[in-house]
Q: What sequence folds into this?
C-alpha cells in the first residue's frame, strides 16, 4: 500500500527499512514507524502538533469521553476493510477502530512526535509520518479513509480511495465544547459547521452526534483545554477561570460527513 515518496514506486518492507526498486530507503524508527517526509519537510518535529499537545490529547482521549465518536465511525467499517486514519494524531482513535472492527489499519500524521507516541503504544497499527498534500499511499487502495478534526486535501483523498471507498470526515459540531467556551468567554459563539463542497468527492450523508459530559478535576479539564484551539487564543485572565474550576459540564458534538468519489 505504501509508495516511495521520491519515485512513487511500491515500497517493500524488510526488518529495518522500507525500500523501493530504485533503492530509495527509509529506516524504521525504534518505535516501529517510518518517516516518509522528504525534502524541506524531513525535519518532521518542527511541523504539526508538538509534544505537549500530543500528551494532552493522549491523556484526555484515554479518559474515554470521545469514545462515542469512535463507536459511531466503527459502524461504517468492516473486518475486510483497509482503513487509513489521516492525520491520526497520537493514535487513540486509530487503534480503537482496529480493535472494534478487526480492519487492517494504518495511520499517519505530519507530526513526528504524535506518530512516535502512537507507534510506541499501538503495535498492531502501521504508522508513518507524512503530509496530506502528498500521501505516500498507492492510488485506489483504501476502503475507508477517516479524517478527524484535521486539514483536508481533496485531490489526495480522492486519489487514494478505491472506487467504492468512502471517506469519513469529522468536524466539530455547532455546540461542541459549549460548556468550556461558556466558562472561558463572556460571549461565546457557536462553531461554524464546515459545509464546503468538493469537486472530486461527493457528500452523501452527514450525521450529527452529541452528548453531555462532566469532567472532574484539573487534569481532565486542563488536558481537554490543551487539545483545543482555545489553548492558544485564551488570555491569562480567562485561563485562570479554568484553573479555579474543579468540575466542568459541557456538550460534545461532532458531524461525520460521508463522502464517495464523484462520478
Ligand atoms: C486536532 S489534531 C487531530 C488528531 C487526531 N485525528 C485526533 O482526533 O485525535 C490535528 C492533527 O493534524 C495533523 N496535521 C496538521 N497538518 C497536517 C498535514 N499537512 N499532514 C498531515 N497531518 C497534519 C496535526 O499534526 C495533528 O495531529
Ligand atoms: Zn523510490
A:
Amino acid at each position: 500500500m505504501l509508495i516511495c515518496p521520491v519515485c512513487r514506486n511500491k515500497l517493500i518492507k524488510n526488518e529495518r527499512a522500507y525500500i523501493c526498486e530504485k533503492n530509495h530507503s527509509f529506516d524504521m524508527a525504534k518505535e516501529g514507524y517510518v518517516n516518509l517526509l522528504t525534502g524541506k519537510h524531513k525535519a518532521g518535529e518542527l511541523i504539526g502538533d508538538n509534544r505537549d499537545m500530543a500528551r494532552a490529547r493522549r491523556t484526555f482521549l484515554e479518559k474515554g469521553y470521545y469514545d462515542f465518536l469512535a463507536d459511531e465511525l466503527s459502524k461504517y467499517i468492516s473486518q475486510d476493510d483497509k482503513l487509513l486514519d489521516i492525520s491520526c494524531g497520537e493514535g487513540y482513535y486509530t487503534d480503537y477502530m482496529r480493535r472494534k472492527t478487526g480492519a487492517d489499519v494504518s495511520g499517519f500524521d505530519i507530526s513526528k512526535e504524535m506518530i512516535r507516541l502512537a507507534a510506541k503504544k499501538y503495535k498492531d497499527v502501521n504508522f508513518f509520518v507524512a503530509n496530506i498534500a502528498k500521501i505516500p499511499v498507492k492510488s485506489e487502495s483504501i476502503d475507508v479513509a477517516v479524517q478527524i478534526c484535521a486539514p483536508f486535501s481533496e485531490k489526495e483523498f480522492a486519489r487514494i480511495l478505491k472506487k467504492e471507498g468512502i471517506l469519513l470526515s469529522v468536524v466539530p459540531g455547532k455546540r461542541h465544547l459549549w460548556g468550556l467556551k461558556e466558562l472561558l468567554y463572556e460571549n461565546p459563539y457557536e462553531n461554524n459547521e464546515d459545509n464546503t463542497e468538493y469537486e472530486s468527492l461527493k457528500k452523501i450523508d452527514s450525521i450529527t452526534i452529541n452528548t453531555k459530559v462532566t469532567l472532574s478535576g484539573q487534569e481532565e479539564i486542563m488536558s481537554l483545554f490543551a487539545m483545543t484551539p482555545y489553548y492558544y487564543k485564551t488570555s491569562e485572565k480567562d485561563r485562570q477561570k479554568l484553573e479555579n474550576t474543579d468540575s466542568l459540564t459541557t456538550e460534545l458534538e461532532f458531524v461525520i460527513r460521508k463522502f464517495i468519489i464523484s462520478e
Summary: The chain has a mean pLDDT of 93. The first helix runs from residue 51 to 61. The CA atoms of residues 100 and 163 lie 25 Å apart.
